[in-house]
Amino acid sequence: MASMPTQDAALQPISNPHTGIAISKIEEILAANLDALIHTQHLSISICSRVTGNVQQIWFPTLRASEARKFTAILQILHLSREALFAGRVITMRDIYYQDPELFGSQQYVNGLVDDIAFTFELGRHALNIVAADKGLIAGAVTVNFHNGTALHCNPHHGQNILIPADAHAISGFDLGHIKWLLVIEKEPKATFRGLAASRFHDSAAAGPGILVTAKGYPDLSTRQFLHKLHTSCPLLAMYALVDFDPHGVRIMLTYKDGSRSLQHEQNATLDPLSWLGPRSIDVLEARMGQGSTARPVDTTLPLTLGDRKEAVRILSLKMGDGDEAMENLDLIRELQIMLLFNAKAEIQAVDDAGDLTKWLDNAITKAMEIA
Amino acid sequence: MPSLWQHQKDAYIVSFMHQSHIRVIRQDNSEGMMILDEFCLFSCNPTNAIILTLPHQHLDVSTLILHEYTEGPVTMSKQYLTTHTVDNAHITDIFSLAATPTAILSASGSSTIHVHATNQDSFPLIQSLSNAHKLGCHHLAVSRNGKVAASVGFAGDVKIWKLAESGSGEWESFGDLDAEKASEKGKGGAGELWGIALSEDGQYLASTTYDGRINVWDLFGDRGVTLREYETGSAGSGSFGLCVDLSRDGEYTASGHQSGAVYVFNNDTGRLQYSLPGLVKPVRAVAFSPAGTRLAAAGDSGIIAIYDTKHGEHVGNLTGHTAWITSLDWNDTGEYLLSGSFDGKAKVWSIERSACVATHSETDKALWAVRWLPKTVRNEMFCTAGVNRSLTFYREATGA
């Protein structure tokens, strides 16, 4: 097997407490199949589906091409994972895909299988020494320290992008300095994360220095585990979410906060203290109504689509599952109900001032920190 | 152009609230400020007509208005007093109200519908319909005779209620309306139900959908089919029907839409009667006058449009709200119209004078619902509710 592309030096060596279990689970499967080969029997691997929870037997050889491909792909992933575990190295799902693009066909196919394997083993993806490709960006005067003695300074210069470290387990701690807040931003484009980072909002905010983070849409596991680690290490750091006022924005915020439904088996990927900074219904509706200081000449809201309405009702059902839970989520529930009532959604830009979000953010963060 | 003019005796203050809006306030040493009246420059009231002829920069309305007040200030306005407030009637926003001769039903973002007695001074909670709508309830309607009610939840679920025949005054379930199942001609259901209205006896229910359809159902007959189905656009692509009303005689259905359109349908012929010149912006409330001769419509334009239902003509506008209008209701005689808005103001309008005769703002938070209580005592009453989660009751001041 060709050697893996090397990761950022900061990620090595890794300390994975589940290495032993992961290796033994993988070797169990390999041994069973070796045994079957010796006795010229059919080979098979049992995999649990994350969607249904059902156990599926993948056979080889088989008449179905898709099953044969799946068997080969799983075996390949197990093999790569085992190598990485032995070498104490982390590989990305992207690395796996590029080992044999013809076999895997797509990145999504690899991602799905990796998560199914982790789910079957009742382990996190990380326990297999596999992480998603780097996705999250960070900007702020924070230093991330790693177990191997290296450090990552997250204050970008000259518009450079600083990637969120892919392996949260390699982090030993954080130096926050005077940082008091962290803002998770739904989107990266220039009006949002990139614009704020370029104007150094993380240094110049009225509420004092902070950290900006984005995972460009739905957050990946690495970003969520990084934020979880940051929160457990620095529990006093206030965490806010800046997302579109629409059901997808809410869903993205909830993915940061509560984790992802398809990755329920992953540990340490939630962010309970995350609170919704906005824009909220009041910001959006007042802007549309053209009253007060937020008056603007054009309507910045759009009507909800049927899909938006269904998604909003789905989130409501999820959050109003039982009475006690509903009490905790009253604020979120109310925002969704108002969204449905007014049949209106708006992007983050609805509250900017000719493309400049900082005025609104300064006000919102300062207010939120006063309440807390 | 907010500015103040102070009378030399410090007795009156005239404030220019808005370009089209003048407020006359009397300063009272013991009770502080009291709003005497609010005028709309563009209404057809004689006093205002004079003001309208003056260029804005030369608005010397002080003497004019004060003169009017010395002549007889009370003739212009009506006085309502807050008689009672039920604080925190719900745990979240109250989205809808429906009044019977003896009680007021309220629905909110939580799953419970509350019933408060309006024939007792303390407005006690007499019944809670728990778990009525799991995802919260946004619309309530009650029949004029006070015997049938209907409610719609955020999941599109519709429940029907009836007053117990035992005379206990309790509401009990009267089944539901499965809009998804009731597909007519294989059109795949009525879609997500939103606004509702009930006929005088509670037999007929009119509803709107997300995709702009208006349906009329017979609640006493087969609820699996719609009696009438009106399209307001090409099939399934009409503008969101935000509100609906049935005339008391059941002859007409009116609907207001997100596009600003207002339609009147004839339930006898099953046809569109009028497509009224709308308000351009979303229409959040439509209401037929008790006699059915007028239709009022209002919403995000902040204007209340009055239409003649006989000829389908736009006969006037009531202007004065400076925020979105969320709710409308006619009083029993059809002389007054009550409106509630996003900035927490409730206004009473004289239809005859085409002017606002009272403005109340207990809260600066949005009112989602305003309702007159059917007149059972000498003094007329109304109730307002919204973001502040309380039910506020007003009574017309006596001796005016």
TrEMBL record, chain A:
Metal-binding among keywords: yes
Domain Spo11/DNA topoisomerase VI subunit A N-terminal: 69-130
Swiss-Prot/TrEMBL cofactor(s): Mg(2+)
One GO molecular-function entry: metal ion binding
Active-site annotation: Y98
Coiled-coil segments on the chain, per record: none
Topoisomerase 6 subunit A/Spo11 TOPRIM domain sequence ranges: 182-354
Matches recorded under InterPro entries: Spo11/TopoVI_A, Spo11/TopoVI_A_N, Spo11/TopoVI_A_sf, TOPRIM_Topo6A/Spo11, WH-like_DNA-bd_sf
Family of the protein in this entry: Belongs to the TOP6A family.
Protein name: DNA topoisomerase (ATP-hydrolyzing)
UniProtKB/TrEMBL annotation, chain B:
Superkingdom of origin: Eukaryota
Classification via InterPro entries: SKI8 (IPR051510), WD40/YVTN_repeat-like_dom_sf (IPR015943), WD40_repeat_CS (IPR019775), WD40_repeat_dom_sf (IPR036322), WD40_rpt (IPR001680)
WD repeat positions: 186-219, 276-317, 318-359
One cellular component (GO) term of this entry: nucleus
Pfam annotation, one family: WD40
Keyword Zinc listed: no
Name of the molecule in the record: Anaphase-promoting complex subunit 4 WD40 domain-containing protein
